[in-house]
Design goal:
Layout: H1 2-15, H2 20-42, E1 50-53, E2 56-59, H3 60-83, H4 88-109, H5 115-133, H6 136-140
Helix pairs in contact: 2-3, 4-5
Amino acid sequence: MKNLYSVLRLISKDWHSRPWWMNLTFYFCLYMTFIYLPFDLFLKPVDGDEEIWFGFTLTGWWAKATEPLHWLIYGLGAYGFWRMKTWMWPWASVYVAQIVIAMFVWNILNDMGSLMSAFISALIFSMPMIALWRSRQKFIN
């Protein structure tokens, strides 16, 4: 029971070391690094594989070939948020800017996409992009 209490205290201390929205981003990076991307790379069949880059969908072996780059990005993001590394600013916001572009382009290129859905998707992802851009002081401490 004492070990559980110590672990919970460490988790609580870590949670309070950054804003809640940044914690969500950090834990998303952890999930992608340790759960989703290993599954995607090693267990998902090539014919069902898809990766999105700048809004363009890569499938099959092209998707498999770019998965290690996604894995590296999320791994660096997890480490950078965990340790609040100074190099995370501006690179985290730059990566999310790529996601904003990707969401806009993907919605336009998608058969069901529309200009309105493209703007809404881009707007939603613009919020964490702006928050990360404005969080320079968080990464200096």
